[in-house]
Amino acid sequence: MSGPISQRLKQLGIELPTPPAAVANYVPFVVTGNLLFVSGQLPLENGKLAVTGKLGDGVALEDGIRAARLCAINLLAQVRAAAGGDLERIRRLVRLTAFVASAPSFTDQPKVINGASDLMVEVLGEAGRHARVAVGAPCLPLDAAVEIEAIFELS
Questions:
Q1: Residue 31 included in any domain
Q2: Residue 130 belongs to a domain with what CATH number?
Q3: Are the CB atoms for 96 and 148 separated by under 8 Å?
Q4: Selection from 155, 33, 21, 18 nearest residue 76 by Cα
Q5: For residues 82 and 40, what is the distance between their CA atoms, to the nearest angstrom?
Q6: Which domain holds residue 127?
Q7: What is the DSSP pairing of strand 90-101 with strand 131-137?
Q8: What is the pTM of this model?
Q9: Are 106 and 133 in contact (CB under 8 A)?
Q10: Chain-centre distance of CA 112, in angstroms?
């Protein structure tokens, strides 16, 4: 399908991957009414974890921002699957909940997650402006540096 969202992705040089499969006993997304809940996505690139470790302890801020951006791309891939391939069904991104693997002294989680927030606004325009939670965590699955889940409203 081709529409404004698909065109923006193309302009940004982003090709959505095949959505990653769940790695445990859960589903990648749940649709209830017009809300889509997408399970936490990791910074996968070409099917592999691209950024591992802890921010403030070996992982640079720029790498964390890149990890958050990759999580956002994987969120959009899951939305495409949930919406039957039609990203134009996105009415808005409601909320991102983000976890940043962090050293105890690291306090720039919001800057890290801007990597995802900025991408969502670039791709979705005003519909990409969202509520957000960005918290530090001592450890994430598979030693990922970032994990992000989302709630979208679909048409």
A1: no
A2: 3.30.1330.40
A3: yes
A4: 18
A5: 15
A6: 4-8+43-154
A7: parallel
A8: 0.97
A9: no
A10: 12
C-alpha 53/C-alpha 103 separation (Å) is 10
Strands (E), 79-145: 90-101, 131-137
Question: Is residue 38 one of the residues assigned to a domain?
Answer: no
Contacts of 14 (CB under 8 A, 6+ apart): 73, 123
Task: Pull the structure tokens for residue 16.
Answer: 């959505």
Closest C-alpha to 30, from 131, 155, 151, 130? 151
- 35-61 pLDDT, tens per residue? 999 999 999 999 999 999 999 999 999
Instruction: Please write the tens of the pLDDT for every residue from 4-21.
Output: 999 999 999 999 999 988
Q: What is the pLDDT of residues 81-111, one digit of tens each?
A: 999 999 999 999 999 999 999 999 999 999 9
Rounded to a whole number, what is the largest CA-CA distance in the chain? 45
